[in-house]
Amino acid sequence: MSKIVAIPIPGGNKTVPVNTGLFINNEFVPSVDGQENITVVNPATEEILCEVSGASAKDIDIAVAAARKAFNTTWGKNVTGFERSKLLNKLADLMERDQQELAELESLDNGKPVRIARDFDIGDTIQCLRYYAGWADKIVGQTIEVDNKTKLAFTRHDPIGVCGQIIPWNYPIGMWGWKVGPALATGCTIVMKPSELTPLTALKLSELVKEAGFPPGVLNTVPSLGGVGGAALAAHPGVDKVAFTGSTITGRKIMEAAAKSNLKKVSLELGGKSPHIVFESADLEQAANWAALGILYNTGQDCTAGSRLFVQDSIYDKFMALLIEKTNQLTISHGFDENAQGGPVVSKTQYDRVWSFIESGKAEGAKVAVGGEKRTTKGFWVDPTIFVDVKPTMKIVREEIFGPVLSVAKFSTEEEAIEWANDTSYGLGAGLHSNDANQCMRVSSALEAGTVWINQYNLLNNNVPFGGKKQSGIGRELGSYALEEYTSVKAVHWNFGEKLSWPF
């Protein structure tokens, strides 16, 4: 049996029990070959929360076998869409029941405020599961006319099979829901690898999967180092599809491993260096609010973070005064502070990475308008930092930072703004602010990104597809488009009247 640990919740005598084993076949078990445990750290205090079992390649084999057995016997094509829908709705109900407890674990594990984890991340994930529960009995194909007198054809959208799902640490519950929802709705089974930095809520959600009544093996959770568990899933011949959210570098490795193994289907949601444009006709007060949200939400740890801001020169000074005022109003504190709007970055590695970019910006001649100074207290704190007077060649402008660091540049014309916005190898998100409807249509069409926001930023909807272009990935999550990532189309040709002459 694996070990259960009680995680203390700050501010009282409450603890949350977490099973620290691997979740395979609806049971928590230790690693079969004693893989080294994963240490989980509170990024706000640098204190160790607990240790959880780390999955080895052999553990991945066992989890994949469990998922395959479930797919062939108790899930897959063996249950109705109605039954899948019922179980997904039950899982959403249990998440709603435990919303506060899940948020507390998420905050301790990831650093984000409890309030934001509870009301936004988890609240949205509950809706995501219910959205896909609604799709579960509506996976339909087509009837195609061939010859009405002798033949017809029809298509079936079959579940693709066993899915390896590799999720990041910036939205541990949100990314879990984005991948679990469509996979289970279509009848796939899952081997889920949460980030080694934030495994606690995935383990807690596994308890709810069992309580909801999903058959053993339908969803298996295997915390592991990326180079071990993630690599094993990407290369595994028993995995039919891999879904990954994370860095472009790792995405390349996964795609290569998938191609070299069994040519499994791959969907990748990767990095971004998203442009955010403010035109002179915009509502500047609102544009400043959205620009601040675009880079500071989740402490900038967001693939779509609007990290390159372009402001038209005619309104630059007025807008920057507003933006700096908004930025200074933000409260960055520990997750159990009800006033907190952001927390620490997730780890020492990420802290060092973000600060290396800040120092690089200073060294290359960019001017710090806000922030740029380290705190002396414990915790992986990075306060909001805004650079102005940036040049297109600077490292802070070219590379994804994944922290609350913004680069701001002026532009004169619409054409110049579009050219600068598209001058990136990424293409995940983009935003623009303008009260000129024709300009909104022109610019949104010209921007090379999978998602474009007009007069808002960083808000997503469960029924609207999300994904990238260029080096920001392939495939789509959310909306009905995500169902296509977990199904394969089978064409059935039915001859009921034609007689074949032989020899022909």
Automatic annotation (TrEMBL):
Record-linked Gene3D superfamilies: Aldehyde Dehydrogenase, Chain A, domain 1, Aldehyde Dehydrogenase, Chain A, domain 2
A GO term for molecular function: aldehyde dehydrogenase [NAD(P)+] activity
Record carries keyword Oxidoreductase: yes
Active site residues according to the UniProt entry: 269
Alphabetized InterPro entries for the sequence: Ald_DH/histidinol_DH, Ald_DH_C, Ald_DH_CS_CYS, Ald_DH_CS_GLU, Ald_DH_N, Aldehyde_DH_dom
Pfam families linked to this entry: Aldedh
Chain ranges of the Aldehyde dehydrogenase domain: 35-492
Keyword annotations: Oxidoreductase
CDD domains in the cross-refs: ALDH_F1-2_Ald2-like
PANTHER family attached to this UniProt entry: ALDEHYDE DEHYDROGENASE-RELATED (PTHR11699)
Membership in a protein family: Belongs to the aldehyde dehydrogenase family.
The protein's name in its UniProt record: NAD-aldehyde dehydrogenase
Species name: Schizopora paradoxa
